[in-house]
Amino acid sequence: MSKNYNIFFDLGSTKIRAAAFSKNSNDEQISFEKKCTSSFKKDNLDIKNLNKSLEILILDLEKKTNEYIERANILIDSVDSINLTLSISKKGDSKKLSMSDIELLAHNAKQEIIKYNKDIEILHILITNFKIDGKDYSSIQIDKEYQLLSVDILFICFPKNILDEISHLFKKNHIFIENFIGSSYAKTFSYKDKFTTFQNLVFIELGYEKTSIVSYKNEYLESLNIIPIGGNHITKDISKILKISDEESEKIKKEFNNQELFSENLNIQKKLLNNLKQNNLDHEEFSLMIKEIIFARIDEILNLSLKLIDSIKMNKLNEKYKIILIGSGAKIFENNSISITQKDNLLDEFEFFRENPEIICKTGENLLFKKNLQEVFIVPKQEDVPGFFVRFFNLFK
Prior knowledge:
By secondary structure, the protein is of the alpha+beta class. Helix content is 32%, strand content 31%. The protein has helices spanning 50-65, 99-116, 160-172, 183-191, 231-242, 246-254, 267-275, 283-312, 357-369, and strands at 5-11, 15-22, 29-35, 39-41, 44-46, 71-76, 82-96, 120-132, 135-137, 145-159, 176-182, 200-206, 211-217, 220-227, 321-326, 347-352, 375-376. Strands 3-2-1-6-11 form a 5-stranded mixed sheet, sandwiched between helices. The two termini are 33 Å apart. 34% of the residues are buried.
C-alpha cells in the first residue's frame, strides 16, 4: 500500500496521466503521461488499449516512489456524464436553522436522484444556492429563524457501466479505486484560485468529443454544462474536406499555430492540393482554406458556449466576466490565434491556460483535501471511512 503518497490517474480519451503526491512534502511530486486512445461512451465503451498503458504507468510510479500501489483516485469525464439539478424545500415554522435541516434536505434529494436513475453513479453533490424565506445566500445561515428553507443541489453523475469496467480494469492490476472524480469539476475548482481578481469566471474546456462550460461567481460554482462537440470534430472536418487521414488531420490541427506547417516547401501542402485537385492554389489561399475549416467548427463551439453563458447571466445585469480556455483542444487558442471578445460585449477578457500532467492530477488532490464550502462528500467504497456527511460539516466552519 502507498503509505507516503496520494495516487491519481487522469483517464483522457487520447492520453492517460498518473501522479504521486507526497503526504509529507508539498514539493515532492511525480508524474507521467502516455498516449492511449479510449472511448468513454455509455453505448460505445472501448478501453482495450488502456490496460497496457496502465500497467506501464503503475510500474513507473512504483519504481519512483519505491512503494507498492494498492489504492488510487481516478479523474474522468465523458460526453455521457450527466449533471442533474434539484431544488428542494423544507418548512421551518420560525425555528432556527440547524445542520440537521440541511442534512435532511441533501439526503432526501440524493434519494430522489437514485430512485429514478438506476444506471448512474453520483460522483459529486454540490449545493449551488441557499434560499431562506425567498432571499438568496451564498453560505448557510446557522441559527437564523426561517419559515421556508430551499436549496438548489447539483448532482454530477456518471454512467455506472463505465465506472464498473474501469474498476474491474484497475482491480486486475490489484488497485482499489478510492474515488472517482469528475475532471472538469476538479480542474475548475482548482484553477479558479488563480483568477481571484474576477468575480465572474467561465471555464470552457475543449475536450476530445465534448466541451464543458463551468461557471463560478465569487468562487462558488453556479453551473456545469456539456456540449457534445469537441476537438475531434475539428479533426474529422479537416479529414473529410481535405480527403486525408485522421492522423494527418490531427497533425494539421495541433500545429495550427506553427507557421512552418503552412510553409510553401512542405510536402504536405503539395499532397493536399493534389487530393483536392486544386494545384492552382497559391500558399496564401491554401493557408486560408485550412483556417476556414478550423474556424467554422470553433465558431460553432463558441456560439453554443456563449448561448449557455447568456442563459446563466439572464438574471444578472451587465456583469462582466472572464473566460478561461482549458483542455487539449483549447491549444488552438494559444497565442491569441482566434479572438472571441467581439462575440459578447460583457466578456471582459479571455485567456488560454496551459496544463501539464502534474497540474491536471494535482486538481484531484486539491478537490479531495482542500476546504470546499459547496460539496457534500459521498463516502468512498472502503469500510473504514467516516459517514456520508462528514465533509459536509465544512459548510459551517
